[in-house]
Amino acid sequence: MSTSESSSKSQRKVIDSSTVGVIYGASAYLVWGVLPLYWKTLQSVPPLEILAHRILWSFVTLVMVVAVSGGMKNVTLTLANRKKVLQMFLCGLLISINWGTYIYAVNTNQIIESSMGYYINPLVTVLLAATILKEKLSRPRQAAIALALTGVLIITLQYDRIPWIAFVVAGSFGLYGLIKKMARVDPITGLTLETLCIMPLALVYIYSLEASGSGAFTAGPAAITFGLALTGVITIIPLFLYTRGVEKTTLSMIGFLQYITPTANLLLGVLLFKETFSTLHLVSFCFIWAGLTVFTISTTGLPGKKPIAAEKP
């Protein structure tokens, strides 16, 4: 086989792997995007109780996955590091806040506002990196943040209230990502330890509800019991797809694909659940989308052009 043929075959293999990665990544974000459909089936259960079950059953599911995949050694090694344990505890608190706020938003018909949170999340992450890690912002990224904040400000001034769901969703997930980046723990091990740290609180809460006879798990219909028990699997499936996607394609492509989730959320909120989406909402979202467009171009670049590099500290 000639050198050119070998090079061509190797290039095709890389392209095929990247395509598979895009499929995995897009599938993960699509699953996250349609999760409101699942949470709506549990609408009769209080959001805090759903959250407690999601934490508990996610932990149970993750322990089984880690045991089967031989990842228990990674968990044990991480547990021996006090700093990483503290980081995982903080991650557990933040992801619990994120999950709980999102479930509350879905089951109180505020999906559009939660989608706003996930749209502005990448920009919040960049802002956190600039303020906490002291990374300098390029001018395009400064413009992107300004555009998105303008969009949020329009909604705030019009309705005379802060869109707290959007801010909590974006802020909690942004801080979560920041701490995860600093901890450098693989996704499965990290989520296992995060849920381990928070699981005792969730278990105590569930036990207190069940002991008083007000818990939905045993007092509710079988469909609710089954639905709550499946929350662990529902949590792990997109995480697995996402992890595989990151392994096989570029991080910039994964970053671009992440907009599938809030877009799917927005469409569900407007088209299926008939939430209010006024002209003002459209104007607000247009500013946010413009900011995301500038941000994406500054990160991934345009065809035929090099990406705009972030300024180094």
List the helices and strands and how they pair.
Blueprint lengths: L2 H39 L5 H23 L2 H8 L2 H26 L3 H22 L6 H21 L4 H20 L3 H25 L4 H4 L2 H8 L1 H18 L2 H7 L2 H13 L6 H22 L13
The largest sheet is: none
Class inferred from helices and paired strands: mainly alpha
Query: What is the number of helices?
Result: 14
Oligomeric form of this entry? single chain
Cα-based radius of gyration, to the nearest Å: 21 Å
The ordered H/E elements are: HHHHHHHHHHHHHH
Overall number of strands = 0
> What percentage of residues falls in helices of 4 or more residues?
over 70%
Low-confidence stretches: 302-313
Total discrete domains: 1
Shape verdict: globular
- Percent strand equals under 5%
In short, what is this structure?
With 313 residues, this protein is mostly helical. The chain has helices at 3-41, 47-69, 72-79, 82-107, 111-132, 139-159, 164-183, 187-211, 216-219, 222-229, 231-248, 251-257, 260-272, 279-300. The protein contains 14 helices and no strands.
Question: How would you describe the overall organization of this protein?
Answer:
The protein has 14 helices and no strands. The chain is mainly alpha-helical. The chain has one domain. Helix 2 packs across helix 11.
Descriptive keywords:
single chain, 313 residues, mainly alpha, 0% strand
